[in-house]
């Protein structure tokens, strides 16, 4: 391996440690799993390479995996989401090699992915399937050692399912994103809050009364629409799926095609997982001062090359992470170069919700070690017992108690002959 780590500035380590420990206060489920891991060392002898957003919440996940006995290596899953102080603290205070510098170029980004694969992992973790993709292309020699992998996000799961359908997957993958303990909370409430946070921090716009266009009504879109409505915005949803469009309508939102929404919106947020959902035909119709941003995994949802071609002038960073494009007589603002607005312009989802996602990830790691060899080379679900454990611990940490079935009720649910 070329370098033992690559972070922007080790002198930020103390600041990073404070933020990691602050996040940890809101991650009680992960802390409990860390305690168990410390005692039982279920990952002993394993090398685990992770490609995740390098945030204070992720730091607590990798600390947990290390406590379980794994040699852990971390690189960034997005060039703009890295918190340099967190990266420095992981290296200096927690002894975890990190390869991530905020704002790194594409070449460095891939050199960092290659660096964590040089560690010869048995287990990998992805947020967007970039490591798995590399293991199936340029780094296929490293794939032979991989027992299993875990995937954190919707976009990654879509890519992995396409690989599975093409018969290409060389090892089993666990779709952590698809667990209820992940997408019902992280995608919905996490993206909902952190996306608004990113827009607010970068623009300081007033939500009350604005026309706010949510592009895509998956779990992330549902969360953003719900929170924008709560902040007083008039929310428009665009969709390509009839069931979701109906759901958005009955949730009380205006649903219309983008050809119409384009001329109405003040702020547009893309969350589709698809490319070019905002493109020149839409830019031409937009109002002066429209703000465009993306909360989907990749920076392909807004057709930026198309916008560049259309515009007569680009004023870079009229505010931090806000670019101004001149289109005819109108101004269009793009946040964070169309990259994840919640992580680039804010600090991502709050720790309390990442607690559930990363507790689910954490418990999936020993499951991969124990079961990986017997799982099909396919996209596999998170076992139900993990979801039960995570939600039970989360409720307990919140001081919330729930009912249990009586024997009579259990029998009733298991029977079929008691009717009207
Ligand atoms: N994805 C969204 N928010 C995140 C966070 N705070 N940490 C890691 N991954 C994230």
Walk me through what this model shows.
- The protein folds into two domains: 6-182 and 350-397, Adenosylhomocysteinase-like (Rossmann fold); 189-344, Rossmann fold, CATH 3.40.50.
- The radius of gyration is 22 Å and the shape is globular.
- It is an alpha/beta fold and 420 residues long.
- The protein has an eight-stranded parallel β-sheet, with helices on both faces.
- It has helices at 13-24, 28-40, 56-67, 84-92, 106-118, 130-135, 140-143, 154-165, 180-203, 219-230, 242-250, 258-261, 280-283, 304-310, 341-344, 351-371, 384-397, 407-414, and strands spanning 6-7, 47-52, 71-76, 98-100, 123-126, 148-151, 173-175, 211-215, 234-238, 254-255, 267-270, 290-294, 313-319, 322-327, 330-335, 379-380.
- The mean pLDDT is 97.
- The N and C termini lie far apart (70 Å).
- It contains 18 helices and 16 strands.
- Adenine is lined by residues 53, 55, 57-58, 190, 343, 348-349, 354.
- Adenine (ADE) binds at residues 53, 55, 57-58, 190, 343, 348-349, 354.
Brief characterization of the structure:
With 420 residues, the protein is an alpha/beta fold. 45% of the residues lie in helices and 17% in strands. The protein is globular.
Number of helices: 18
Q: Tell me the structural class.
A: alpha/beta
List how many beta strands DSSP finds: 16
What fraction, in percent, of the residue positions are helical?
40-55%
The set of bound ligands, ions and cofactors reads: adenine
Might you state the CATH topology name of the largest domain? Rossmann fold
Shape: globular
Strand content: 15-25%
Strand line-up across the major sheet: 1-4-3-2-5-6-7-16
Distance between the termini: 70 Å
* CATH A-level architecture of the largest domain: 3-Layer(aba) Sandwich
Rg is: 22 Å
Which superfamily, in CATH terms, is the homologous superfamily of the largest domain? Adenosylhomocysteinase-like
């Amino acid at each position: 391996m070329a370098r033992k780590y690559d972070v922007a500035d080790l002198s930020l380590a103390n600041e990073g440690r404070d933020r990691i420990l602050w996040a940890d206060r809101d991650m009680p489920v992960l802390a409990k799993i860390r305690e168990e891991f410390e005692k039982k060392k279920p990952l002993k002898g394993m090398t685990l390479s992770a490609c995740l957003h390098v945030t204070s919440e992720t730091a607590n996940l990798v600390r947990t995996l290390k406590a379980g006995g794994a040699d852990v290596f971390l690189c960034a899953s997005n060039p703009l989401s890295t918190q340099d102080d967190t990266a420095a603290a992981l290296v200096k205070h927690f002894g975890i090699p990190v390869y991530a510098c905020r704002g790194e170029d594409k070449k460095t980004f891939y050199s960092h992915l290659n660096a964590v694969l040089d560690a010869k992992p048995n287990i990998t973790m992805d947020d967007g399937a970039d490591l798995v993709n590399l293991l199936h292309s340029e780094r296929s020699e490293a794939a032979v050692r991989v027992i299993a992998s875990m995937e954190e996000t919707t976009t990654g799961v879509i890519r992995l399912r396409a690989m599975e359908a093409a018969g290409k997957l060389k090892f089993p993958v666990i779709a952590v994103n698809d667990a209820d303990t992940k997408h019902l909370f992280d995608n919905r409430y996490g993206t909902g809050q952190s996306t608004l946070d990113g827009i607010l921090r970068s623009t300081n716009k007033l939500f009350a009364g604005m026309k706010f266009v949510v592009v895509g009504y998956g779990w992330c879109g549902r969360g953003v629409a719900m929170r924008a409505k709560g902040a007083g915005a008039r929310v428009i949803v665009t969709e390509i799926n009839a069931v979701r469009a109906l759901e958005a309508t009955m949730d009380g939102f205006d649903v219309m095609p983008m050809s119409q929404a384009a001329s109405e919106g003040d702020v547009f947020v893309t969350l589709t997982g698809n490319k070019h959902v905002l493109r020149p035909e839409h830019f031409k119709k937009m109002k002066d001062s429209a703000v465009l941003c993306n909360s989907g995994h990749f920076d392909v949802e807004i057709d930026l090359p198309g916008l560049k071609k259309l515009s007569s002038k680009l004023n870079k960073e009229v505010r931090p992470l806000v670019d101004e494009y001149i289109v005819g007589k109108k101004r269009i603002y793009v946040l964070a170069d169309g990259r994840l607005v919640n992580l680039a312009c804010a600090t991502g989802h709050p720790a309390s919700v990442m607690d559930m996602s990363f507790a689910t990830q954490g418990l999936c790691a020993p499951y991969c070690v124990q079961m990986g060899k017997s799982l099909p080379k396919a996209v596999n679900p998170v076992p139900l017992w993990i979801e039960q454990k995570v939600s039970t611990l989360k409720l307990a940490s919140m001081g919330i108690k729930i009912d249990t079935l009586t024997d009579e009720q259990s029998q009733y649910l298991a029977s079929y002959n008691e009717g009207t």
